[in-house]
Amino acid sequence: QTIPMKKIFYILACTLFAGFAAGCSGSEENGTASKLTLEVDKTSITADGADKCVFTVKMDGEAVEDAAIWQIGTPDLKLGGYEFTTATAGSYTFEARYNGETSERVTVNATEPEVPAGPEKYYRKVVVMKLTGVKCQQCPKADQSLLTLVSRIPDRVVLMSFHGYSADDPMNVDVTQTLYSRFGITGYPGAIVDLRTRPGHTGEAPYTFCKEAIEVSCNEYPATCGLRVDSKIENGKIDFTVGVTSNTGGNYRLGVFVMEDGIIYPQDMDGMTNENYRHDHTVRRMVSKTLDGDSLGKLEADKEVTRTFSVELDKDWNADNLYIVVFAQDPYGYINNVVECEANGSTDYRLNETNE
Question: What's this model's pTM, rounded to 2 decimal places?
Fold first, then answer.
């Protein structure tokens, strides 16, 4: 019996398709192409410095323990392990890299934590931390811009200059690098507001970025605690006592620093060197154990807790220009309030006028 030509073409087409499909199926089953994957246990965390997500890396379905996790940015940042946490809200993208292979990217969203609000009994001040250095050409211009900003919102901002741009800067402090890494800053000058926000490099647009961040701190994060300091220089040491009181109660940590104004030291600027540049708001020493502060435990509402400190004077410090900065951090690591006090002086609690 003769098979119609049309049917012959149909049989051939089916045979070819079956062979092609079998070939494709065999390729997947044999696993000829390696596959690196990146998984994360949750794609949303709270930006409180404590909540974290955990990554898993697999090669062809098998777990890999020595791959590198990279946070994608400018520049890309390599994580120290398989976990990620942050104190800065935002969207973060990651990829895994292993033996020349790169995984598809995953995104984790870090959201602002809920900060318990309370009646604002205590006068609120905001901390602006500047990252600077004597070899930073753009830092003096940024500094002047910040000073202009502060003059327009008087008595609301405490400036702290953290030097760390160059190794030969005599005002360098180790904590500058901690700030630099924690907030993903990629160059100097830089600014951080209340250990919450990195408004951008101050050299870009210091007035706009910092002004907005300061307004957010004042308007959205009310002070729930106040601070006082009694300080005295004697026998080559600064001895001081810090008092903290909260009208709401809660957990707080203390960040404590020795500061100095009026340091005359050469500063690079605008392609030249100013031999008699005045450096103010300079961090001389971090007295608290870490940038995260020393724990005060849980405070009862309206009950004062005190801590005492003693710091030996360095031979390079001018005792007449020294002062103390102490800030209280909330459970999320953000600065809730701050106080400045002369090294030979005292500063009492400051209340808002409506509560005085």
Answer: 0.68
Q: In Å, how far are 33, 100, 176, 247, 307 from 28, measured between CA atoms?
A: 8, 21, 51, 65, 66
Average pLDDT of span 28-56? 81
Q: Are strands 62-64 and 53-59 parallel, antiparallel or unpaired?
A: antiparallel
β-pairing, 44-46 vs 106-111, is parallel
CA distances from 68 to 36, 58, 171, 269 (A): 12, 12, 35, 39
CA distance 336 to 217: 9
pLDDT tens digits, 81-139: 899 988 778 899 999 999 999 999 999 999 987 655 545 899 999 999 999 999 999 99
CA distance 122 to 288: 23
Length of the chain: 356
From CA 314, how far away is CA 133, in angstroms rounded? Answer: 20
Q: How many Å is the maximal CA-CA distance in the chain?
A: 119
In percent, the amount of the chain with pLDDT more than 70 equals 85
Q: Is 136 exposed, middle or buried (CB count within 10 Å of its CB: 0-12, 13-18, 19+)? A: buried
Q: Which whole-number Å values give the CA distances from 242 to 129, 247, 256, in the listed order?
A: 21, 17, 9
- Residue 52 and residue 43: Cα distance in Å, rounded? 10
Pairing label, strands 267-269, 272-274: antiparallel
Q: Give Cα 204 to chain centroid, integer Å.
A: 18
Asked if residues 189 and 203 have their Cβ atoms less than 8 Å apart, the reply is: yes
- Rounded CA separation 245/305 (Å): 7
Angle at 206 between CA 201 and CA 208, to 5 degrees: 120
